Amino acid sequence: MEKTVVKFLTGLSANASGWEKRQNKRYGMITNVCKQINYDIKHGVTNAEVLSFLQKIRSDSSFSSLRKNDGSIERLDEVEKHYLQIR
Description:
Oligomer: single chain
Order of helices and strands: HHHHHH
Shape: globular
Low-confidence stretches: none
Distance between the termini: 18 Å
Structural class: mainly alpha
Number of strands: 0
């Protein structure tokens, strides 16, 4: 779950190849990220753990470089909004 969220928040690099762009279009959208997180929830991760990890990304200094990426905070808000509705 953590790897999926970090990959989604990172997004594409400015010099992404055509293959990377196609893969991101196919697998990197919010719906696919939520499907993967829901799969993880079905297999043992709790909704509270998901929300606590999202808060950790917001506040922990180890994720500061991730927060500096363009649009990462908006994508984080999008994922967080989805899992706050489930609560």
